[in-house]
Design goal:
- There is one protein chain.
- Helices cover 77% and strands 0% of the residues.
- The chain is an all-alpha fold.
- Helix 26 runs antiparallel to helix 27.
- The longest helix is centred in the middle third of the chain and has 35 residues.
- It holds the Pfam family FUSC.
């Protein structure tokens, strides 16, 4: 037994053993993944069978549609099916219009087709949600491009029958959508309850790393928040899942809105932690009162995630949190009372008064953080236990990047135009297939942030499906004479594709495999692809399409990670100027949301490969978010009008300097940094002699925000210094 144990351990540690371990998705799948592959295989074969029964001209498009919309959960499948149907209608209308506009003008048709694909990619990039395959609003535009390509390129060769061709293609797509939706519904049970449980699990998954990180901060690790970009990116992904749970639960409640508000509260909690970390840079902030409150808060945060899984424990959690909030307010009031006692009994001990002030500010910000947590937990409870006659609404937010949308549009349009020119000039008999596949690939991948990387994985899947389809066409299909036998032969190869789609490491290759399997095999009622030449004439355009798209994505407007980061830095500086200058600036949750989107994009552009450069930029994005929130807090203080006139002038001067913030430092200190330090010094002098309680409170709030801004400008000068073209050489 010991020898067997030793052999197994050595096998698992070897290269071959490691490779075998990575293939568990195939030979030892989870029940959920196996169920997904099985139900999707059944749905696609039913769609294919109905299409053959109805004697449709191109039945392979029906199972292809099933694989396009099938997802692991009911909510995802329904969301994707709805947007795919919408995209089909839009694509069909555009296709009919294009063919009717240029029936005998191939060059004009190619120009219009290229422009239409580019327009759909442009619109898709601007729709709510991240640029990922999980964004099904964007998938609606992808489906429009897909439908436009297959209808218009079939119809341009026979424009007199464009309406019949359009209706036929729409029938295949609708048939695939209906089959997948009906079959997937049969595999679901207790859907509403499982969707509610998923909302709970999502929130616990979000609060767990947040509580751990904030606990480390309260334990004295000021840098704990600087390495938590993945946590913020996870929040964006979890927010996406709420929409799918809403679809599964139906429209009877507002659980999804409360869940979105709860996750937004987690992000706000994180932003309060960033402010607190900046204040903790001064050792004077950590006095005896602070130490007691921080220790109690840390213990509470670390135990919170596990306690939230038990609904009966929620009232006790809120009671303990209310006690901590009350204690923080009492401690902050005690610090303020000690300050007032000092300043009303001169001479003032400046050192002692400064220590009390710093501690009071830290305690106050910790209290704000606990208040944010309480608000978030209340929203979480409302999502777990629906409220009768609830009218709460928390909309899905989006932050548009017009530059990215323009680049995606131009990339798709140019790829389509070049492919069309190749078709026209060469008169290649299979050129229409080539152009159709280029349209499909551009519709699917041009909106992604790393299309070249995605198409490379897609190429691997194409090679695999070509080999499998060749085996099916040459050896299997000639021996089959009934649909039942054909379905039995399709089951194992389709199951492999479904299992591969359930594995994150092979998902893009699996998409290509599942989409093109029935296209390459091409089962028909009255004929079969029996010879190698016919199969080659279908497979070769597909393979050339993948190679062509990979080449275009690397040649025309390729992804430039340095350029993406440089543009992001300029956008952050522009945002800070706008927050200080505009009459109606962004709201705090907008600043948090757009910062999370930037971190997600940074991580996407490097494919998860972290390094000192990316870490520095992620820290810079966090710093920009912290400064932005502090500016908004300063503007709230100014709007209340309770600051003394000298303090108001100092804050206004600092905001005026920030409104011109370019990041180009002159001399040892930048002008914005110098203006912030001057405002801090001025408000410190005013605070030490202010005896009016309400004005003193406002001075302390403004001073805390100014200290946060000053600390961030000092600690992240390399990021904010835009005088160099890139930050990268500093760390390389």
């Amino acid at each position: 037994m010991a020898r067997l144990h030793s052999f197994l351990n050595s096998f698992e540690s070897s290269w071959f053993g490691s490779w075998v371990g990575r293939q568990k998705w195939l030979y030892a799948p989870s029940l959920l993944n196996f169920g997904y592959a099985l139900r999707t295989t059944i749905a696609s074969l039913i769609a294919l069978g109905i299409a053959l029964w109805w004697e449709l001209g191109s039945p392979q498009w029906a199972p292809l549609t099933v694989w396009m919309i099938a997802q692991g959960s009911r909510g995802k499948s329904l969301a994707k099916a709805r947007w795919h149907m919408f995209g089909m209608v839009v694509g069909t209308l555009i296709a009919i219009t294009l063919v009717a506009t240029a029936p005998q003008q191939p060059l004009l048709f190619i120009l219009l087709l290229s422009g239409s694909i580019g327009m759909l990619c442009f619109i898709g990039t601007l729709l709510p949600g991240p640029a990922s395959m999980a964004n099904y609003r964007m998938h609606g535009m992808r489906a429009s491009g897909f439908t436009l390509s297959i209808i218009s390129l079939d119809g341009i060769t026979d424009p007199n029958h464009i309406f019949e061709i359009s209706m036929a293609r729409a029938t295949y797509i609708t048939l695939g959508i209906v089959c997948e939706t009906v079959i997937s519904s049969l595999f679901q049970f207790r859907l509403t309850q499982r969707a509610r449980n998923r909302l709970v699990d999502n929130y616990v998954a979000a609060i767990r790393p947040t509580a751990k990180t904030l606990g480390a901060l309260l334990g004295g690790d000021r840098n704990a928040l600087r390495t938590s970009a993945e946590m913020m990116a996870t929040l964006a992904g979890l927010g996406d899942q709420i929409e799918f749970a809403e679809i599964e639960m139906g429209k009877h409640g507002r659980e999804g809105d409360h869940a979105r508000a709860a996750l937004s509260g987690v992000a706000a909690l994180f932003s309060r932690g960033l402010e607190l970390a900046a204040l903790m840079a001064d050792p004077a902030s950590c006095g005896a009162s602070w130490d007691r409150l921080a220790a109690d808060s840390r213990s509470f945060l670390l135990s919170l995630p596990d306690r939230l899984t038990d609904p009966a424990e929620f009232s006790a959690v809120m009671a303990e949190l209310d006690t901590l909030r009350s204690t923080s307010r009492v401690e902050a009031a005690n610090c303020l009372a000690r300050e007032m006692d000092m300043v009303t009994h001169p001479p003032v001990d400046v050192v002692a008064e400064t220590i009390v002030t710093r501690e009071g500010q830290a305690v106050h910000v910790l209290g704000d953080m606990l208040d944010e947590l309480a608000t978030s937990l209340q929203q979480f409870e409302a999502s777990r236990n629906p409220i009768a006659h609830d009218h709460f609404h928390y909309p899905i937010e989006t932050w548009r990047d017009w530059r990215q949308a323009t680049g995606n549009s131009l990339r798709a349009s140019m790829s389509m135009f070049v492919a069309g020119v190749i078709w026209i000039t060469t008169a290649w008999p299979q050129g229409l297939f080539f152009l159709m596949f280029v349209g499909i690939i551009n519709s699917l991948f041009s909106t992604l942030e790393t299309p070249a990387v995605a198409t490379r994985a897609f190429l691997h899947g194409t090679v695999m499906v070509t080999a499998v389809a060749a085996f099916m066409v040459i050896l299997v299909m000639p021996a089959i004479s009934t649909y039942e036998m054909m379905a039995m032969c399709f089951i194992p190869v389709m199951m492999v594709g479904g299992l591969a789609f359930s594995n994150p490491a092979t998902i893009l290759g699996a998409v290509a495999y599942n989409l093109f399997l029935t296209i390459l095999v091409s089962p028909f009622n009255d004929e079969r692809m029996l010879d190698e030449i016919s199969f080659f004439n279908t497979a070769m355009p597909l393979f050339l399409t993948m190679a062509f798209c990979m080449w275009m994505y690397r040649v025309f407007l390729p992804l430039d990670p340095d350029g993406v980061r440089w543009t992001m830095r300029l956008q952050i500086l522009q945002m800070l100027r706008g927050l200080a200058r505009r009459a109606y600036p962004l709201r705090p949750h907008d600043v948090i949301g757009v910062s999370i989107e930037r971190m997600v994009r940074l991580l996407n552009t490097v494919g998860g490969r972290r390094g000192p450069v990316v870490d520095a930029y992620l820290q810079g994005v966090l710093s920009g978010m912290t400064v932005g929130l502090a500016i908004l807090s300063l503007r709230e203080v100014m709007a209340r009008g309770n600051l003394p006139a000298p303090a108001t002038r100092n804050v206004q001067d600092m905001l005026a300097r920030m409104a011109q913030f370019t990041g180009r430092y002159g001399g040892h200190y930048g002008r914005t940094e110098h203006a912030t330090d001057a405002a801090v010094a001025a408000l410190v002098r005013l605070e030490q002699g202010e005896t009016n309680l309400s004005q003193r409170v406002e001075i302390l709030r403004a001073l805390a925000d100014l200290r946060v801004i000053a600390a961030e400008l000092k600690e992240n000068r390399l990021f904010f210094d835009a005088s160099s073209p890139y930050l990268d050489p500093v760390f390389s």
